[in-house]
Amino acid sequence: MGRFVAFTQALAESGVLRGAEHLQPADTATTVRVRDGELLLTDGPHADVVESFGGFWIVEAPDLDTVLKYAADCPATDLGSVEVRLLVELS
Question: Can you give the residue ranges of every domain in the chain?
């Protein structure tokens, strides 16, 4: 966990960090659906997968290549993966 804290601090010190949160484990999720007007709640994640979404960082950088360099420094890449997505800009 210390490596993740250090990574987050490094992003903040570089001035690119815009937000970050650690999430509870996937098995604590509640999946919400509405079908034919009926609310359906299911304990657990939407899908049973090996990897799960454990948290996120929002960074602001001049281009995708810069973001990918930051992502490569994330400790999650050692044993898992980091998925990079751009935010949708609404006009």
Answer: 2-77
Mean pLDDT of 70-84: 92
Enter the tokens of residue 73: 């420094």
User: In one letter, which amino acid is 49?
Assistant: V
CA proximity to 10, closest of 81, 74, 83: 74
CA angle 43, 45, 48 (to 5 degrees): 120
User: CA–CA separation, 8 vs 19, rounded Å?
Assistant: 10
Which is the CATH superfamily of the domain at 2-77? Dimeric alpha+beta barrel (3.30.70.1060)
Contact assessment for residue 25 and residue 68, using Cβ atoms and an 8 Å cutoff: no
Residue 45 structure tokens: 């994640």
Give the tens place of pLDDT for each residue, 13-71: 999 999 999 999 888 888 899 999 999 999 977 766 667 778 899 999 999 999 999 99
**How far is residue 71's CA from residue 16's CA, in Å, rounded to a whole number?**
12
